[in-house]
Structure formats: structure tokens, C-alpha cells
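In response to the reviewer comment on reproducibility (Comment 2.3), we provide here a single inverse folding case reported in full, input and output, so that an independent group could reproduce the run without further information from us. The C-alpha cells appear first.
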């Protein structure tokens, strides 16, 4: 990953009709950015302590809650889930960390049925083995309950939504015989499991409540029977008990977000790849059976990716992600608005270079496997591997840092 990469991971609408984005700039800094209905910036907050990574956001009772991870350092002793509460004027009200075992990574956050939040995280229970960790926190960030869900393999959580009965649906992935399966867990308000289902069809990344109180999932799968094995966008419908009703695949690419649309329809955000360096944002509307009503792609000559989407109060679709095609330098935060017919209303690009942050990353105290303080990346270093470690995009919009084997 180049060091001038800026990414928008999630977006939420506020009560005044504006949008708040969370993401990263210059790889090592987190940013929370508020813009108006036309994408013009109102304020921003940059977090530079201990290499924070804010990747999920929600809006509760007039306040912004954004979730991520404080990466490993000698002070905290391990990765920690990180939650920040901000008011609509950009004032940071508090920030808190949560950790169980030596490793805890914040994944996703959702509004709870009261004024609090439900945090989806993962914890390392042993080497390379992660379990799902859910925390219910109050509006003050105090933990009210926490529960761990795990299997013998690797487990992860991708999304949480409220269920119509007051409980929650947790969307994740679990390993069965070393093969990843989509994992759906239905819990009550206290975190007790009511049912759970696994699906071998593909890996779902986003979920929404269906119009009939079931659930619609979107993600990606692969087609090993084809000559060239490539990921395909995957859409699935399950009933309110998690029983699969139908599933479909579409072209090559992946689905990252899904929202309900009027008339029993759904809109899917995805990405389609032309090659290793070029991709376009895909937006597709389907009916209640998954039949395509329309689909459009948006992009330029470089890599353009949509990572998260909301349907706003005006019925438009607001997409956040990254772009290397439009104005700015390197890879920049992408924000775009599309109407209900798929017509592009506007595109905005936010470059980390405008925010006056140092273009370096200090490794020593952050990662623990380098002892020389002050070793830095300079702008001329194009890949992280060049200085002894690598930044891997293991799962969509989840960044992991691992030391390289120096043997």
C-alpha cells in the first residue's frame, strides 16, 4: 500500500441532513469528516495517537459514535477496540478502549435498541485464532454486557443490525474444515443466542432487513468450476429463522453494502475489477427476487472502490470509499451521491495532503518488533515491505499489520 493512501470506510447521515465519514489518511492517521448535502466540508477531526484506525460509524440521539482499533504499542500492551463519541459540531466528548486477551480489534458498530451501541469486535484466543466479541455499551461508553462467540477455527464479524423483535442479527464468517462460511447469529437484547446458521455459498459482507422480515445478504463467492477462478458478487435471501430461500451470483466482483429501496426493492453497492490496478464502483438495483432492475458503474482510469453506502432521508444513495482516478494525489477518500434511478448527482474527493499531517509513520513504539526509535517512512517509500513489515488487506476494509519473517 502506498503511504499516500486515504480511505473512507463508512458514512452516516445526521439529523440536519449532513453526512459524517470515518476513514484513514496517509495510512497512519484516522479522520472523522463532516460534509453538507453537497459534499462541502464543514469540519474534520484527525486522530494521530498510537496509529488509530476508525472503520465504522453510527449516529445515536444526536451524537456520532465511531469505532475502530488502537494498534499494538508498548503502553497499552496489545491491540484494543477503540470507541470515540463526537457531537455534531465536531467536539470529541470522550474516547474509550476495550480489550479482552492480548488482541482485540474493532470491526463494526450499530445503534442499540436504547440510546447505547452494540460493538462487534474480534479477540485473539490463541495464535491466529479469533472469536467474535460483542459488547453492549451505554451512551457513556460503559460496558453493560459482553459475550464471545467462537468455533474451532477463525471467526470474524462483518455487520450487526437490529431485528424486528428487539434483538439483533450478527453477520460474520466462520471456518468449517478450514473453509470459510458465512455465519448468521440471532441474539436477544442480552446477547443470548436464539439461533445461528452457516452458509457455504459465499462470504457475506453486508445485511439488511428484508421487506418480509427475513434478511438479504450480499458479498462474494468464487466459481472454481470456471476456467479462471474469480470472485463473483453474491446475493442471498433467508427467512426470519435464517433458512435460505434463494441466492444468486452476478458477474465478477464483490458486494460490499446493501440497503432497502422503495417498492420491495434493494440497492447493492459493489466493485468490479478489470485488472489488479483498475476497478469501478458498481451500483445495482434488484427486486425482491434478486432480478436486476438497473445497474451502473462509476469510475475513471484508476482504482475506484465503494466500501459503504446509506440511503439518506431524501431517498438518495451516499457512497464512501477510495479513488485513484479523480483529483488529488495518490489514492483519496471518495464520496458520491446517486439518485434512486442510478443517476450520479455529484462526486467529491478528499485528499490527506490538505490536512497538514506529517507524511511519516513511526514504527518503534507502535509495533514492538523494532527497537530503534525514529525510524520513519519517507514519501519516496512506495511499499511498506521496504522497511521490514507489511500492511495486508486481508478482508475488505479491515487492515492488519504483521511483522515479516526475517529468517
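Designed residues, in position order:
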Amino acid at each position: 500500500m502506498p503511504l499516500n493512501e486515504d480511505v473512507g470506510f463508512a458514512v452516516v447521515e445526521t439529523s440536519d441532513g449532513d453526512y459524517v465519514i470515518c476513514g484513514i489518511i496517509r495510512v497512519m492517521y484516522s479522520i472523522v469528516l463532516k460534509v453538507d448535502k453537497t459534499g462541502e466540508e464543514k469540519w474534520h477531526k484527525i486522530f494521530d495517537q498510537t496509529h488509530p484506525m476508525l472503520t465504522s460509524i453510527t449516529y445515536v440521539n444526536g451524537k456520532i459514535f465511531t469505532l475502530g482499533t488502537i494498534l499494538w504499542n508498548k503502553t497499552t500492551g496489545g491491540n484494543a477496540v477503540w470507541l470515540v463519541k463526537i457531537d455534531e459540531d465536531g467536539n470529541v466528548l470522550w474516547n474509550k478502549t476495550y480489550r479482552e486477551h492480548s488482541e482485540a480489534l474493532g470491526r463494526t458498530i450499530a445503534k442499540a435498541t436504547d440510546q447505547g451501541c452494540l460493538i462487534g469486535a474480534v479477540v485473539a484466543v490463541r495464535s491466529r485464532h479469533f472469536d467474535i466479541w460483542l459488547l453492549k455499551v451505554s451512551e457513556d461508553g460503559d460496558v453493560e454486557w459482553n459475550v464471545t462467540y467462537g468455533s474451532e477455527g477463525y471467526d470474524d464479524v462483518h455487520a450487526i443490525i437490529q431485528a424486528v423483535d428487539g434483538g439483533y442479527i450478527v453477520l460474520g464468517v466462520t471456518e468449517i474444515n478450514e473453509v470459510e462460511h458465512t455465519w448468521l447469529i440471532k441474539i436477544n437484547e442480552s446477547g443470548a443466542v436464539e439461533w445461528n446458521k452457516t452458509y457455504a455459498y459465499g462470504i457475506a459482507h453486508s445485511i439488511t432487513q428484508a421487506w418480509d422480515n427475513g434478511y438479504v445478504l450480499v458479498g462474494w463467492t468464487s466459481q472454481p468450476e470456471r476456467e479462471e477462478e474469480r470472485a463473483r458478487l453474491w446475493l442471498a435471501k433467508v427467512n426470519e429463522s435464517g433458512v435460505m430461500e434463494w441466492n444468486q451470483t452476478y458477474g465478477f466482483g464483490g458486494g460490499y453494502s446493501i440497503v432497502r429501496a422503495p417498492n420491495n426493492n434493494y440497492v447493492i453497492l459493489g466493485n468490479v475489477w478489470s485488472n489488479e490496478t483498475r476497478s469501478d464502483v458498481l451500483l445495482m438495483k434488484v427486486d425482491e427476487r434478486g432480478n436486476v432492475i438497473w445497474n451502473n458503474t462509476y469510475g475513471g482510469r484508476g482504482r475506484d472502490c465503494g466500501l459503504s453506502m446509506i440511503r439518506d432521508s431524501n431517498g438518495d444513495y451516499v457512497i464512501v470509499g477510495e479513488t485513484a482516478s479523480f483529483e488529488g494525489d495518490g489514492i483519496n477518500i471518495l464520496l458520491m451521491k446517486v439518485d434512486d434511478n442510478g443517476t450520479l448527482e455529484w462526486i467529491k474527493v478528499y485528499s490527506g495532503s490538505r490536512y497538514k499531517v506529517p507524511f511519516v509513520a513511526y514504527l518503534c513504539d507502535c509495533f514492538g518488533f523494532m527497537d530503534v526509535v525514529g525510524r520513519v517512512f519517507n514519501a519516496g517509500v512506495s511499499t511498506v515491505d521496504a522497511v521490514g513489515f507489511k500492511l495486508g488487506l486481508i478482508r475488505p476494509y479491515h487492515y492488519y499489520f504483521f511483522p515479516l519473517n526475517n529468517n
